[in-house]
Amino acid sequence: MKVITYLINLDGSNQRLENASQQLQLAQVEFSRFPAYDGRGKNLSEFKDYDDIEARAILGRSLLNSEIGCYLSHYGCVEQFLKTDADYLIVLEDDMKIVTDFKTAIDGILDYLQQHQDLNWYLINIAAKKKKLAKDITLIGEYSLWHAYYFPIRGLGLIWSRAGAEEFLKVGKNINVPVDIFFQRWLSKNGLGLGVWPPLVRPRGVDSDILGTVAEQGISRKDKENRSLSHGLKKQKRMWLDRYHALKHLIS
After folding, report:
1. Rounded to whole angstroms, how far apart are CA atoms 106 and 157?
2. Is the peptide bond before 198 cis (omega within 30 degrees of 0)?
3. In what residue span(s) does the Glycosyl transferase family domain sit (predicted)?
C-alpha cells in the first residue's frame, strides 16, 4: 500500500507552509508541497473551464476568481496523483491543524480499507465539521469511519482512492460551483463518500490565502459574488436535494 500526501500552499504563504510543515514533520508524515493555483486578480473569462451561466443557475451568483483557484488546486492534486503509482492520496490545505495521532489514525483507516476491498468509496473527509445522515462502518481506535451520505462541506483534509480520483477528473472538469460544494453534491448523490469522526484535521482559524478575506478593499463578499435575488432560494434547494439523495442512501 502506497500513500502520498500533498500540502496545498500558495506561493509566498511562507508562514503557513512553515507551520503546516512543522506539524507534519512532528507527526512523521512525509509530504510534497503542491503550489496552489492563484486565481486572485483574474477575470472570470480567463478560466477556460468555468461556466458562469451554469454557476448562476445553480448558485444564484458567480464564483469568485479565488474560489476557482481553489478548485483548480484540488483538481491539480488529483491529476498529479494519477501520474504516480500510489494507491491513496491525502490532500491537506495549509491553514490546518492536525491531531497528535494523525499518522496512527490514517494508517489504521487505510489498513482497514485495504483489507476490505469490497467497500466501494471515492473520497474520505477527515475534516468534517458535522456528522449528518451518516452510517457507521467501524471504530478504529477512538475514531469512527462512516458512510458520509451527506458529504461534509469542509475540504481542509481529504483522502482519495484512485477510483475516486479518476472519476473526479471526468466529472469535475467543468467548473460551476466551489470545490467543496461540488464534492457534497457529487458524493451525496452517488453515496461513495466516507468520513472520520472526530475529525483528524481542523482549521487554524485564519483566513484562506487562496480564497482571500471576506472583505477586500472595502468590497463585501456578497457584492463581489454578484448575487441574484434567487441566491438564498437556490442555496436551500441545493441543500435539500443533497439531503434527499443522502437520505435515500441511508435507508436503502
Report:
1. 11
2. yes
3. 5-182
Cβ-in-10-Å burial (0-12, 13-18, 19+) of 113 comes to buried
Residue 158 · residue 123 · CB < 8 Å: yes
- The domains of the chain are located at 3-251
Helix (H) or strand (E) holding 113: helix 102-115
- Count the helices and strands in the chain (H runs, E runs): 8, 10
Q: Per CATH, which fold does 3-251 belong to? A: Spore Coat Polysaccharide Biosynthesis Protein SpsA; Chain A (3.90.550)
Residue appearing with cell numbers 500533498: 6
Nearest to 98 by CA among 131, 132, 138, 126: 126
Amino acid in position 172:
G
